[in-house]
Amino acid sequence: MNHSDRTRTIARIASYIVAGILVLLPFHAVFTTWLGANFGYIDLFRIWKELIIFGLLLPLALYIAWSDSAIRRWTRSSWLATLLLFYVVLHLLIGYMALVQHAVTPVAFVYALLINLRFLGFFVIVTVFVSHSDFLMKHWRTIIIGPAVVVIVFGLLQLVLPYNFLEHLGYGPHTIPAYQTVDQKLQYRRIQSTLRGANPLGAYLVLLLPLLVVGVRSTSRRWVLGVAGVLTLLFTYSRSAWLGLVVTAAILVYWKTNARSRRIVFAAAALMVVLGVAGVFAFRNSNVVQNSLFHTDETSRSSVSSNASRLYQIKQATKDVVHEPLGRGPGTAGPASFRNDKPARIAENYFLQIGQEVGVMGVVTFICINLLVVRALWRQRSLALARVLLATWAGITLINLVSHAWSDDTLVYLWWGLAAMVAAPAILNEKRKRYAKK
Fold first, then answer.
1. Cys-Cys crosslink for 178: which of 4, 155, 167, 258, Cβ 3.0 to 4.6 Å?
2. Sign, Cα dihedral of 51, 33, 329, 398
3. Would you list the DSSP string of 381-405?
4. Are 392 and 252 in contact (CB under 8 A)?
């Protein structure tokens, strides 16, 4: 076996492993919670994918990158590669300063590095493998849509299952809540299916619903799965996900239609918005409207509404970034800050969280990385999958303005993994016709 054949073989085997990770991701919260509840070491079980990605796949990717002159040129001349490296170094430097000043514990620091950087590393790793194997692009429908069907079906089943059903799988106060509600009212139970909660499920569906449209070839199945997925999204009561899907759908409709059709579609959409706003105003005192849209009513059981709490956290995080433009260090904000020895800081905005941790420079770098990836996807826009990823990026970015969606394992690996599959030729300056008609 010559060197070229060996490289292709390694890339193909590694692609099988990547596919396995992507298939398991929508269910990883369930099986890691069950394993952790029964055997302990839940944090170890939760990082199973990171152990595979950085313990096994990273060395294979480094070997291929070292032996591929095109990838070596990319690492030396690409703005994207430069910014990715700078983003990692920035985390390490500011994190080291935070450790020295005892602003963060080692555990919180490592956990923050994992959350903030893992998906970018996965993106680069998948890009390397895709440059030598087309397995992932050929089979993305099976890899992504098969598990999505299970997630949607199980989500709808939660409407009729006992509200505490997930307790049988180890869910509870020390792992993941077995159920979530709107304003602590059981009659407004929020579907979370196999993900970590209702909001992560909502963000996941913002990505998956458009993928179902382009990935399912049978029209009847597409309609059935689409309706089931929308119902599942509706009963997550995730308002940010609802808006994210509206933005995503609007972009896709704009690309799909000609100028005349766009005017008709958007006139109809505007009319629906007006009627919807009028309906909300007319029934604003209805418990259904108040709980579904505002997550509170006059019989609220919460001492502080979720809206007031979110607004306060966003304002406080903004003040933190203004007063500490260099950041306080990875692990001092976001989900990782729960593992710190100081009060947790939850910004309710992913970009503000990055600003709290690695400063304004970190936020700007992360935004630039996003824009460069979006540019690479735009170059591949002749592909339906590329258009879906561009539209869902806009929807998910909106969600990240009021939550920490990029901190969720399932969503972040799926979107950035798919983005790597599609954008690899544009990123590495390969011939774009390679993915034609796939």
1. 167
2. positive
3. TTSHHHHHHHHHHHHHHHHHTSS-G
4. no
151 touches 26 (CB < 8 A): yes
Is the distance from CB of 349 to CB of 422 less than 8 angstroms?
no
Among candidates 342, 425, 349, 423, which has minimal Cα distance to 390? 423
Q: Provide φ and ψ at 39, rounded to 5°.
A: -125, -5
In 3D space, the residue among 238, 381, 244 whose CA is nearest the CA of residue 306 turns out to be 238
Q: Decide: 225 and 231 in contact? Cβ < 8 Å.
A: no
| Longest pairwise C-alpha distance within the chain | 73
Choose among 371, 375, 378, 336: nearest CA to 353.
336
**pTM to 2 decimals?**
0.91
- Nearest Cα neighbor of 22 from 168, 158, 130 is 130
Dihedral pair phi/psi, residue 175, rounded to 5°: -130, -95
> Which DSSP helix (H) or strand (E) runs through 188?
strand 185-190
79-100 and 69-77 helices cross at what angle (nearest 10)? 60
Average pLDDT, the chain: 88
| Mean predicted confidence (pLDDT) in 343-351 | 92
d(CA 329, CA 239): 31
Determine the Cα–Cα distance for residues 147 and 29; give it in Å rounded to an integer: 14
| pLDDT tens readout for residues 199-228 | 999 999 999 999 998 998 888 999 999 999
- Token duo for residue 46: 């939760």
Task: Quote the distance between the C-alpha of residue 128 and its chain's center.
Answer: 21
Calpha distance 153→150 (Å, rounded): 5
pLDDT at 436: 42
215 alpha carbon, distance to own chain's centre: 19
The C-alpha atoms of residue 374 and residue 385 are separated, in whole angstroms, by 13
Q: 405: closest CA among 244, 213, 246, 235?
A: 244
